[in-house]
Each structure stands twice: as C-alpha cells, then as structure tokens.
Design a protein that fits this description.
The chain is of the alpha+beta class and about 170 residues long. The chain has 5 helices and 5 strands. The protein has a 5-stranded mixed beta sheet with strand order 1-4-5-3-2, sandwiched between helices.
Length: about 170
C-alpha cells in the first residue's frame, strides 16, 4: 500500500513539474551549428559581468550533464536546475549539452538549451564555456539572485530596500 501511495505522490509531483516547465518550448527552435559559440545576455547586464562569465570567472555552483537525454528530459532537468540555483543563490551553473556532431539532428540539445535559457526569466546571461569546461559543448548560465540575496546586498552596501512597506531609513535600523 505504501508503494501505491508513493507512486501517486511521485506521479502528482511529475505532473506539477510538467506544468511548471511547460513554458520552455518543445516546439521548433532555431537550429544551431554544432561548433557555434553561444552568447546571450539580457538587456541591462553589464559588459564587465558578461566578460567575467565568458572568461569562466564565476564559481560554478552546479553542473548538469544532458548527454544521452531526450529533449523532454533535458527541458525538465534545465528547469529544475535553474529553479534550484535561484532558490539556493547559485549564481553560475554549467550545462553540458554536447555538440551533437554524430546525432541524426546535429546540435539538437544545444539548440534547445540556447532557446530555453533565453525563455527563462531567472537566466540573466549565458555563453559557451571555456575549453577546459566543455567549450562549445557546454554553457555557463548566470542566474538571477533571489530576492533575499538582493536585499542582503542592499543592506551590505547601504542602498534603499526593494521590500514593500520598508519605511525605515538605514540609520533607524539596528
């Protein structure tokens, strides 16, 4: 009986994951060349921040290997990684999608990952990794800081709070 309940909970959890990651498309995406260098950043991301990402200057908090995964499995894995990264304040993650040189559809996962990362609101930028971290078969993704982490930085640097209803000035705080 315990197993049946476990299966029900697991299938409900899987359904919830499908709903959450469904905004990441499974439809047609722009095909990428297997050897193409990938680069993208949201408007407003400073060039110095992006250069640091390109040079591998951020600590990689987690790595995700998508080799041998289906597009559907990869979509769920990418969604979960980005969500966990934001929740845990992991600023940079490495996603290894492979080049897909021997695949019937070259660079299929690479193409989807490139598209998904631009779709996800928590991704600020991404770029192909340094050669020793997978090169054009992997990307670094820069993840948006959580609200708590942003507030902590504001406190540290004496900036105005983003929190609604925060009417105390810096000098009034303990």
């Amino acid at each position: 009986y315990g197993d049946h309940r476990d299966l029900h909970v697991r299938s409900r959890r899987q359904r919830q994951m499908c709903i959450r990651d469904s905004f990441l498309t499974l439809g047609e995406v722009k095909p990428r060349d297997p050897l193409e260098v990938l680069e993208w950043r949201q408007d407003g991301i400073q060039l110095a921040v992006f250069d640091k990402l390109r040079k591998g200057g951020y600590d990689i908090a987690r790595e995700l290997d998508l080799h041998q995964r289906t597009v559907k499995e990869a979509r769920s894995d990418v969604y979960q990684l980005i969500s966990r990264a934001n929740a845990n304040n992991w600023r940079c993650v490495l996603i290894s999608h492979g080049k897909g040189l021997r695949s019937p559809t070259p660079a299929k996962l690479k193409s989807y990952v490139a598209h998904w990362l631009t779709q996800h609101p928590l991704v600020l930028a991404y770029c192909s990794a340094q050669r020793n971290r997978g090169g054009v078969g992997s990307v670094y993704a820069l993840i948006k800081k959580s609200a708590a982490s942003r507030e902590e930085n504001r406190e540290r640097f004496g900036q105005k709070s983003d929190l609604v209803g925060d009417t105390t000035s810096r000098s009034d705080r303990p």
